[in-house]
Amino acid sequence: MNLLIAPNAFKGTIEADEAAEIIGSAILSKIPDAEVVLCPIADGGDGTCFLLGKALNLKQVFEIALDPLGRPMQGFYFFDPGQKTAYLDVSTVSGIKSLKPHERNPWITSTFGTGGLIKKAADSGAEHIILGLGGSATVDMGIGILRGLGFLFLDEKGREIPVFSEGFISKIRFIQSPIPKPNLKFTCLCDVNNHFFGPSGAIPVFGPQKGLKLEDLEKFEKDCSKALELMAKKSGKQLADKESFGAAGGIAFGLSFFFPVKIEMGAKWFFEKVGIEFKIKSADIIITGEGRYDSQSASGKGSYELLQLAKKHRKKTVLITSGEGGEESGFDQVIQLPELDFGESGFVIEARKNLEKAVFSNF
Q1: Same domain, 19 and 64
Q2: How far is CA 185 from CA 125, 256, 259, 314, in A?
Q3: What are the E-state strand segments in 99-177?
Q4: Does residue 73 sit within a domain?
Q5: For residue 100, is pLDDT > 90?
Q6: Does the residue 260 lie in any domain?
Q7: Pairing mode, if any, of strands 72-80 and 85-89?
Q8: What is the CATH number of the domain that holds 30?
Q9: Final residue of a domain: which of 231, 266, 301?
Q10: Helices 48-55 and 16-30: crossing angle, nearest 10°?
Q11: What are phi and psi of 346, to 5 degrees?
């Protein structure tokens, strides 16, 4: 029996690569002669470029960078010198996972640290940046990244505004471009198709998750609109809001004023890069999973997109999740995980045990 084990991350508990290892070990302990292939997947969410870098056997380059509040931490990117391409996730140093709940504040948080990593990759020869947008802590329209690449944001008196200062976006009155501007193009991978503005936009939908107070939504949106107008004036480009500009707090929106930017839905792009369709053809059963499979999963999430490829080749599919809707989507088997109490200190350990037990009990 040939098994392809391709889970997404179990958000907040188990990363995709660890989940694949747990599932594979549990199955082999029950069925020692099974042929198991591990291929953890991502869809543009947190950790997408990490998995890509590992799957493509690229060199991992470690650098000190700044987190969303300006504290030093170790960051990294993957580099393909032959293609002059660097792969990195916004979540690596500008992720919401770096912050405690009381630290979340889009008036202060910045993608500056990610900009610093991109600058170091560019200094090493990268000309193409593959940027995974999931899991960001910010709603800064990529202004922090631009600052890290040498753009200056000035107040009404022409003074540079300190990064990570309260109300950074609302203080911008002038923008200076670096000379020369970095020779870069971006491919942004995402798992949402929200516009930046509007009732389903980045600010009302994701802002509160990142610490924005409901009473501040209107003012924050006005400040963002003014900042985008200044970027349009500086670049000489007029850009209309479009699908996925709301991903990661508008990063692709802001970058598009100054660099060539292509937006890709992460799952299909990831699958093509790692050759997952070939792996599906060689397998008898496809096992995937995610923390909570729900109605949003059919909008480009990894497990659902994997299901479509498995159906195409008439393969049996198994979904492991604590959510609902897997059977309705067409999975042949759904293994239900128990709900976790995230208030308990050992919930990650509990999640690992639950995953191992569920797999062992169902194979």
Answers
A1: no
A2: 13, 9, 6, 38
A3: 128-132, 152-154, 174-176
A4: yes
A5: yes
A6: yes
A7: antiparallel
A8: 3.40.50.10350
A9: 266
A10: 60
A11: -100, 30
Domain encompassing residue 56: 48-266
Do residue 99 and residue 244 come from a single domain? yes
Spell out the alpha helix ranges (H) of the chain: 16-30, 48-55, 90-94, 112-123, 143-148, 168-171, 202-206, 217-235, 251-256, 266-274, 276-281, 302-312, 326-329, 347-362
Spatial distance between the Cα atoms of 363 and 356, rounded to a whole number of angstroms: 11
| Residue 59, both tokens | 């060199």
> Residue 30 corresponds to which amino acid?
K
When pLDDT is cut at 50, 70 and 90, the band that residue 344 belongs to is confident
Q: Are residues 118 and 258 in the same domain?
A: yes
Q: Are residues 81 and 152 both part of a single domain?
A: yes
From 33-37, 70-74, 221-225, 347-351, the region with the lowest mean pLDDT:
347-351
Q: Cβ of 222: how many Cβ atoms within 10 Å?
A: 11
Residue 338 bridge partners (DSSP): none
The predicted-structure confidence for 298-332, as pLDDT tens digits, reads as follows: 767 889 999 999 999 999 999 999 878 888 889 99
Q: Which CATH number fits the domain that encloses residue 121?
A: 3.90.1510.10
Looking up tokens 């839905």 gives 265
Indicate the average pLDDT of the chain. 94
Give pTM, 2 decimals.
0.92
Whether the predicted pLDDT of 13 surpasses 80: yes
Single out the residue of 41, 15, 10 nearest to residue 358, CA to CA.
Answer: 10
Does the residue 219 lie in any domain? yes
- Nearest to residue 73, comparing CAs of 48, 94, 45, 104? 94
Reported as a single tens digit per residue, the pLDDT across 227-280 is 999 999 999 999 999 999 999 999 999 999 999 999 998 899 999 999 999 999
Same domain, 108 and 247: yes
Res. 294: pLDDT tops 80: no
Q: Are residues 14 and 137 in the same domain?
A: no
The domain tally of the chain equals 2
- Torsion 274-278-282-288 (CA) sign: positive
> What's the pLDDT at 1?
87
| Domain co-membership, 27 together with 122 | no
List the end-to-end C-alpha distance of the chain, in Å, as a whole number: 12
